[in-house]
Amino acid sequence: MAKERISLDGLDQSKSLEQEDYKKQLKQHQLHLLNMQLELRERKNSVILVMEGPDAAGKGGAIKRVVERLDPRLVRVYSIVKPTPEEYGHHYMWRFWSKLPARGEMAIFDRSWYGRVLVERVESFCSEEEWKRAYREINEFERSLTDGGAIIIKLFLHITKDEQLDRFKRREADPYKHWKISDEDWRNRRHWSEHTEAAEDMFEKTNTELSPWTVIPANFKWYARVKTLRTVCEQVAKVLEA
Asked: Residue 56: inside a domain, yes or no?
């Protein structure tokens, strides 16, 4: 039986939290994750957290809440940007191998190897043959990591097109956040439907049993942050309790 295709436009974006509930749940999940971080170090399981989503979806804020109570010696955060000239000279996966966490540690990728089937596909930075082949390459890559004891958690934070516009305008108006907005963000916005289609294809091709995707409605930031932490805790606990 074929899996039902995930529709980003069909997400329920009405989910929210009151401030008191947000603070309570945030603290609870952060403590749970900290305790599990110590167990991960003893058991030598690494954690790879992949964060994807449209510009201004709140990935950075969610990542901050994941790591802010953890032992910083055991976690690294990578913001993936345009490849360097040296990286362009290699296979697109090459630049990620050196960033994978050691056993017992955690690495968080703010954008990842999935750029191959997302922005690189939409912007024609690679050929159609290359991005279609990437689904198999990525699945095999992730399978090799989970076979070695890695816990791969893949989250896609999604906001509506109207919410993105509101956030872009607020960033432009705030001198402390102006650095967060660029011409590239506005260009990507003009290809909203293409990016949506690419993301839905990605879910269909790479949502595996060992490394499934979790899509999080993110119009309300407090809800998205708590849901991110809860999902990380649940997936790590599932492996530790097995």
From this structure: yes
